[in-house]
Amino acid sequence: NKGNYEHYMQKEIHEQPESLTTTMRGRLIRGGSCKAKSVLLGGLKDHLKTIRRSRRIVFIGCGTSYNAALAARPILEELSGVPVTMEIASDLLDRQGPIYREDTAVFVSQSGETADTLHALEYALENGALCVGITNTVGSAIARNTHCGVHINAGCEIGVASTKAYTSQIVVMAMVALAIGDDTISSQARRESIIDGLFDLPNKVREVLKLDQEMKDLAKLLIAEQSLLMFGRGYNYATALEGALKVKEVALMHSEGILAGEMKHGPLALVDENLPIVVIATQDACFSKQQSVIQQLHARKGRLIVMCSKGKASSVCPSGSCRVIEVPQVEDCLQPVVNIVPLQLLAYHLTVLRGYNVDQPRNLAKSVTTE
Ligand code: UD1
Ligand code: BG6
């Protein structure tokens, strides 16, 4: 049922304040006079000790689910102190990469049925790792075959391009990081501010959804482009990859997410006055580095669209010559949840304006059950 919306993708983008609320329901503890704020993940609580003791945490997934894990990686590393590595499921299988008994392997999948991810799970089980699932589908193959896990509870997602599952996956993995780090006194203040940020996150997403018309106007400007680059780094490297994936899979426009730190190692050669470039430069520890990336792109007359924190337009675009998308600022590790929303809206409007099928992109399937 699409309700008042024209497409499922549109409905699913707009229902993110509610889906995020459902994802967090019953899992955030407000704390009190003598009790700290904390998270409670029923499916993980008996396994946290083993995860903390593991030698490595390996995230495994495909497509949007991989990107969600990439967005959560920095906070998991920070709060757990355990090295976190990333694997695209098919690539792990192609290489038969090493997985050990001392590893925690985390399988991220909206459907819980993706063939590559499921085969990687079988492989990790054979190698004796603790296998954890993060999935939206109760009773799915990945939920059944992992040792433990967390359901993201985002509600049924119908649009082939994943939107609300992406934001809920990031929130669940941030909660996993909080739960693993729960025994560390030195990070308690940091954890509590992230928990406060989680409580307020649905409101911030509601606020960023007001950019709908602005994103439609931007889509009108970009409708006939051949290509669109997206630069991000740190917490928002994943945002660049995921924003580009949305544009390419639904709007059928070439788009590439680029790690801003790699700019001089190739991508800079593409920059001219024609190619549109989105730069994600919201407030965090990488901000000044992104400011310098913007200056360098600007010096080469790049056509810039800069995403920055509210009120910061003049510090990312002093000359006023770029287009700016201002988003509400949240806790750094939660910022990817807010930042992806305008890019989802942009991909949606580009698709409609270009006349393509929004909910069933050419050649793609919601759940890829063959390798
Ligand atoms: C569970 C109930 C929820 C109830 C809540 C009350 C289910 C599915 N969930 O939620 O309805 O409101 O208790 O306390 O009945 N699991 C995996 N792999 C996965 C995902 C989950 O093994 O990929 C396992 C978990 O380890 C857990 C079980 O499935 O044993 C349920 O997980 P989850 O729904 O996340 O647990 P709760 O949030 O506690
Ligand atoms: C397919 C979908 O390629 O599978 C993507 O079209 C999705 O949207 C990917 O990200 C992985 O799916 P899942 O269900 O494992 O998260």
Radius of gyration over alpha carbons?
A: 20 Å
As a percent range, the share of helical residues equals 40-55%
The count of DSSP E runs of length 2 or more, i.e. the number of strands, is 12
Bound compounds, each kind once, are: uridine-diphosphate-N-acetylglucosamine, 6-O-phosphono-beta-D-glucopyranose
Classify the secondary structure makeup into a structural class: alpha/beta
What is the number of helices?
Answer: 14
Low-pLDDT residue intervals, each spanning 5 or more residues: none
Biggest β-sheet description: 5 strands, parallel
Describe the fold and architecture.
The protein is α/β, with parallel strands linked by helices and 371 residues long. Helices cover 44% and strands 17% of the residues. The chain is built from 14 helices and 12 strands. A 5-stranded parallel beta sheet has the order 4-3-5-6-7, with helices on both faces. Strands 9-8-10-11-12 form a 5-stranded parallel beta sheet, sandwiched between helices. Helix 2 packs antiparallel against helix 9, helix 4 runs parallel beside helix 8 and helix 8 packs antiparallel against helix 14. The longest helix is centred in the middle third of the chain and has 21 residues. It is globular. The two termini are 31 Å apart. 51% of the residues are buried. The mean pLDDT is 96. The structure holds uridine-diphosphate-N-acetylglucosamine (UD1) and 6-O-phosphono-beta-D-glucopyranose (BG6). 6-O-phosphono-beta-D-glucopyranose binds next to helix 4. GO terms for molecular function: carbohydrate derivative binding; glutamine-fructose-6-phosphate transaminase (isomerizing) activity. Its EC number is 2.6.1.16. Pathway: Nucleotide-sugar biosynthesis; UDP-N-acetyl-alpha-D-glucosamine biosynthesis; alpha-D-glucosamine 6-phosphate from D-fructose 6-phosphate: step 1/1.
